[in-house]
């Protein structure tokens, strides 16, 4: 079990602001409070939303993962993860 916070104050250890939960509860809480960084907001992001939209459009038109990667000069693995729905799922 993890000690989770009901407030968003970093470093807060007020006992009344803590409750027990799982790692999954903690992650869901971060998503619900818009504190979970994904997409362009993530510190490791290399792609933009516009690039991802282009990738998805090209894949829907039948272009292969390899051709999309080469055309946009992005790693094949990144295009494959988008194709399989393993990354950038929030972009339509």
Describe the structure.
The longest helix has 12 residues, at 49-60. The chain is built from 4 helices and 2 strands; from the N terminus they run E-E-H-H-H-H. It is 41% helix and 9% strand. The chain folds into 2 domains: 2-36, no CATH class; 41-83, Arc Repressor Mutant, subunit A, CATH 1.10.10. A two-stranded antiparallel sheet has the order 1-2. It has helices at residues 23-32, 49-60, 65-72, 76-83, and strands at residues 2-5, 18-21.
CATH level-two architecture of the largest domain? Orthogonal Bundle
- The coarse overall form would be elongated
Widest sheet: strand ordering: 1-2
CATH fold node name of the largest domain: Arc Repressor Mutant, subunit A
Number of domains: 2
- What is the typical, i.e. mean, pLDDT? 87
Number of helices: 4
The structural class is mainly alpha
| CATH C-level class of the largest domain | Mainly Alpha
Strand segment tally: 2
Order of helices and strands: EEHHHH
Low-confidence spans: none
Gyration radius, to the nearest Å? Answer: 18 Å
DSSP strand content = 5-15%
